[in-house]
Amino acid sequence: xxxxxxxxxxxxxxxxxxxxxxxxxxxxxxxxxxxxxxxxxxxxxxxxxxxxxxxxxxxxxxxxxxxxxxxxxxxxxxxxxxxxxxxxxxxxxxxxxxxxxxxxxx
Length: 106
Description:
By secondary structure, the protein is mostly helical. It has 5 helices and no strands. The chain has helices at 2-28, 30-44, 56-60, 64-74, 78-100.
């Protein structure tokens, strides 16, 4: 059950990252979109047998065009911006608690 939950979480992050890659490509041009796409393709090119998307959220969080795309989507929309910040803070809190309890955080 734990493996299924990890795979589902990583798949949701993959869908989010692919959508943000498309936004980055359209909004900022091919160089940023290509950088994001290649940065996602590298960890996807060698999947683990048990967890095919192992650590994908960790790899995706350092792809800066994705953050630019997220900022572009929320610019001029204070409620959406606040929702993104609140969700990010919530996920950070969950990750810190998992880390403090010696659980796998990635």
